[in-house]
Structure formats: structure tokens, C-alpha cells
Amino acid sequence: MSVTAPAGFEAAGVAAGLKSTGKPDVAVVVNRGPRKVGAAVFTGNRAKANPIIWSQQAVADRVVEAVVLNSGGANCFTGSFGFQTTHQTAEKAAELLGVSAGDVLICSTGLIGTGDETFRARVLAGTEQAIAELSADGGDDAAHAIMTTDTVAKTAVISRDGWTIGGMAKGAGMLAPGLATMLVVITTDAVLEPLQADEALRRATGKTFDRLDSDGCMSTNDQVTLLANGASEVAPDLDDFAAALRELCQELAVKLQGDAEGASHDITIEVRQAVSEQDAVEVGRSVARNNLFKAAIFGNDPNWGRVLAAIGTTNAQFDPYDVDVWMNGVRVCTEGGPDRPREEVDLTPRATHVVIDLKSGEAAATVLTNDLTHDYVHENSAYAS
Amino acid sequence: MSVTAPAGFEAAGVAAGLKSTGKPDVAVVVNRGPRKVGAAVFTGNRAKANPIIWSQQAVADRVVEAVVLNSGGANCFTGSFGFQTTHQTAEKAAELLGVSAGDVLICSTGLIGTGDETFRARVLAGTEQAIAELSADGGDDAAHAIMTTDTVAKTAVISRDGWTIGGMAKGAGMLAPGLATMLVVITTDAVLEPLQADEALRRATGKTFDRLDSDGCMSTNDQVTLLANGASEVAPDLDDFAAALRELCQELAVKLQGDAEGASHDITIEVRQAVSEQDAVEVGRSVARNNLFKAAIFGNDPNWGRVLAAIGTTNAQFDPYDVDVWMNGVRVCTEGGPDRPREEVDLTPRATHVVIDLKSGEAAATVLTNDLTHDYVHENSAYAS
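The joint structure predicted for all components is written out below.
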């Protein structure tokens, strides 16, 4: 059910010819009210696609009526023509929905530099078609229409006492944090004030999507949007809502990790006993971004030396010669030297668990990543063709 | 001739059984004087191998008699036993050469965590054998003995008015800057004061090895050492010497790039019109470390969008929507949009030239890197086995 699981939302996904495969490529999600609360977080990349530039302005008043999303073209670095395409898409949707264009967010994903007149015509036609097909059962169709190299549609639903959160996500590469790291739309029928929606979204994404770092490459098009309409007439405690939202975001983040391009291992890097949470994240991310470590995991090689070499490049507070490293439950390194024989570590399962104990403080954090594989190289060397 | 090209140096390389292949794995370079000036730069990684910890202390007085190098084991994270191995190696060399152990530098390269009693016994025996075989023609043997996954020995010689600089380098992976990025020994018979040697070495490495970033992974064992003995009795102007040293370091850096593990392209990233040289390096390095860009180049795909996405993550001063990008002479992006068709770009040659014009200032810098290939993944997923 995805984004249409909560009451008062409609969605659709249609094929508009943007993808050469003919698969669905334009999605629309509409909030039917009564409230039209919206919040969004965006890529931290300074190179922002036109839809990001548009949506950052449109969400500023925290009123969002609808989100139009397309795959098959990022509309990034397409100049003023590309920005006009985004603007016209919002105006088209607004006209058909009877709302203000300034309350329509736009998200695009696909190849950078793609956005010619054909692209524009197809996005506009697709938007019209999707709006004509809007339905309270359209969540799954929408989730399929935003897929690029994703192999499965990614959705999640959480229900609590009288209110529900639904979400859909796309993302299989260029996954690295910077406020947001992919296209995600989350809907809820909980009653939320605009500032509450914003706070809950930032709290949730900061601990979930921001800690997914599949390949260290930050996208130009990332956007995570939360729409809240209060249709349930239940106003949850903000902490309760934020906790449920974080749970949903984490579920989607794990699904993104599990579908990362070419990956053969989903690696959970758990950093313990750091002086600060920031230190723990920095240490975890340094390992997540180390190609030699990632290639070793692909080869089922518990090469803990590469973990130590990676964390030694950080500014985090710890003694590099008093760190414990576990791989899938086996302590392979302790006190600056080898511990258990590497032969004891079984890295054949897809789920890989690395624990790094810094023995320096009481903070902890977990970063999710993937291994570096032949298939990752293959998929990303042939993307444009 | 490598390190024995300048007058007054002897070297040797022998097989001590550290490599399972039986190839040479221990090298010694000795300065026969009259001066015994030494300078060295080391990895910026906080996780330092035992030879680094030893050599940093040994070079502090700027007197160096000899360097002992081994491949086949990094002696990193091998605890106090590993440090004793380094210490004993220096003492063994010092005893045989009739010098102080505190004037002998040690360099090791190979797998982290390797350094047991067998390793120690073989390093000590190899050191003894190499010293017995020292000769003024031994430079090439030494250059071969420090190879790991290198496919060719890397040496360079530059001669000026009466004085010569010779060098050898090893490095084929884990190449990322941090003062130094590999094992390099450079010798000269020029007359240099200790502080001059130090300054010239830092100036040269800062513009050469520090701007080689093959895979973003900083080693635990990197060391670049300069030995100067004044045997030519010529004292060059410091700027002249520094320029020649930089030329030699650049030649070795290019050879390292050309032999990087699994690479199929040598990529020169030239950043122009930056506000500062620091900005230019940051921008160049962001591209050099972007796996999606590197995979695209492997696929001969001029995916300039990935260049823009990479540089957008930096803090350098420039307008992301007013940047020109050239690939192998074709301007593919200008003023925030596409320029010439990507079909015009021929990326089939190994040498790849990317120019990024930030249009913001007068500074420039060039960063060297490689593409991300199947073979890189293969070599680095099977390294420990």
C-alpha cells in the first residue's frame, strides 16, 4: 500500500516513455487533507538538480498538496530550460488538482544532463495521465514508477493507535548521506503541526538514511518528503510519532541497502565506546568508504587490517593501538594486534556485521554499507549506455 | 641504476623467503658518505606500522646511514613483538655496518597483521644477506625487492651540473595522499644541509606524491626518504635542487599511477581557475575518489554529470552552475548544462585528461588517479589469499 496506506492520500504511477524499457516512470502522490502539512530534507550536494531547487522553495511554507516524481532523467545540469520543465510540471499538476503550483513538489531521478524537449513533453503528459489515474490504492504503482536500477519496489507501512505512516523509496546507487540520500515520499494521517512534521522528519532521517553510505557518492537529486493530513484525527505524542517515523525510515534504508547496485554483502558497521556519536559516525563512515575493505568483504576476506587503516585516517578520539574489531562475531583484532585466526570468520552470508570497539567513551553509532563488487563496477561503467 | 646512480651509495636486494613466490623481498640502501644527511615524510594515517614509528624517531636528528626495506609483510598491528622485530632489524644492520641503530630507517610493506617469529627470522637473515651483497650497482636489485603487487620496478634518475638524484618506488594500491603514499627511497650526491634536505623533500612530495590518489585508501606504512651524502662536492642552489627533486618525484608518481592495481586508465584531473590551490586540490581529489566517475571512465563513458556531482560535495569556492568540463579535449559541459555531444569524446586511450575550469580565480592543481575496474576489485578481494 505504500504511501496510500494512511487515510486521505491518493497516488498513481504511469509509463510516460521516459524509460527506454517502457516501464512506469511518472508517479504522483496527492494529499486530500484535511491538513496539507509538508516537510522535506534535501541532498547536501551543492550541485542540485532543478527539482531540488524548486522543491526547496515550494516546501518553505510547509504546505504541500502533492509530489510529482519521475524516473528516466535527473533534470540536473539542464540549464534554464530544465528549470522551466520543473516549473511547468508543477503548474500542470496544480492546474489539474486545483491547487497552487507553489504547493507541488517535484522529484526527478536518472541520468544527469538529460532533459530535452522530448523529456519535457513526456513528463507533462505523464503527470496529466497519473493525475487522471489517482486512486486510494495507487501506492504500489507509484513505488514502481520511481525505480531506476532498483530491482524491487521499496515500501513500508507502520500503524499505531489510530494513525498510520506509509512510505516508498527508490535508490540503488549514489547512496551517501547529506540530509537525504534518495527519493522517498512518506505519508501519514496523524495530526501534526508543521514544525512537528519538520522536526520528526529531521530526527528520523538523521539516524537512518544519513547513516546509509553504500558507495560514498552523494546524489544531486535526493529528497525525502513527509506529507501529513491529520485524517485520522489522532494527534500522537511527538516522541511517539518520531520513533515510529524513524522505524519506518530505518526499514526503508535497510531495503535500499539490500538492493544496492551489484552488492553481494549488506554490511552493518557498529561503532562502540566512542567519545561522541559524531566520532562514532565518522569512524563508521571511514570504513564504509574504504574501497579496499569493501573489496575484501566481497572476497569473503576478513581483512581487519583494512578496518584499522581506514579508521586511522579519522580525527575521532581513540587509541589506534587499543581497538577491538569483531567480524561476524569473531574478535579478529585486539590491543593493536591479531586475535582469533581469520579462518574462524565466516563471511559467506550476505549479512555482514563488523563491530569496532574504540574503548574511549560511551557513544555508539551504526553505519550501513555494501561491498565493492564486479557487478557494481559493471553496472556503473555501463549506466549511460 | 635507481638509488645507486648518485656517487657514494650502495644497495642490494635479496630473497629472504618473506614472499611465498620466492622473489626478492629485502632491500638495503647504504650511504657511504661523506655526509649522512637524511629526511623523510611519513603516512598521515594515525594507524602507523611499527617501521613508521621507529623511523620517525630515527630520522629526527636528520642523520641516516642506511635504510632496510622489506616486502612480504607490513609489520603493522603486530604489537610489541612486531616493534621488537623492527628494532632488532635496525640493530642487526647497524652492527654489520658499524653504525648506530638510531641512524637506520626501516620500511615494510605487505599484509597488515603479519609479523610472527618466522617473519622476524627471515627479515633478520635477509638483512644480513643483503648487507653482504651491497654494491654500487645494486640499485635495480633493491628496486625489485620492494615490489608487492607492482608489475614493474619503478626507478628514476636525474642528473644536473655535477650532481645526481636517484630514486626507487613501490606502490600499486592503497595509494592516497597523507604526506607520503608509498615506499620511496631517494638518494643524491649533492651537498645539502639537513634542513635543506628536509625542505626540498617536503616541497617536492607536497606537489607530487601527495597529489596521487589512486584509490582513496591511505596506507599505514608509507614513507619517502631522501639520503644526501655530498659526494659530488657540488652544493646546488636550493631552488634548483628542489625543482629537480620535484621532477624526479613526479616521474615516480606517474610510474606508480601507471602500475596501479587493475587500472585501465591513468586519469589526470586538472583543475583551473580556482580561488586557491587548496580549493583546486580539494576539487580534483573529490573527483579522484568518486567511484561512480571512476567506473564510468572504465566503461569509456564521458559521464560528466558524475564530475559535477562529485565537486558539488566540496567546500571550494565556485558556482556549480558555471563550471566548464573537458574530457580528452572536448568540452562536454558549460554553464550548468551540456555542451558538445558525449559521442565526440574518445576515452579508449589509457591516458585520460579531465579539465575542470571553476572560473573563480587564478589557482590551479592537478591530481592523478585511476579508474575503478573489475581487476581492481578482483585483486583487492583476493589479496590475503
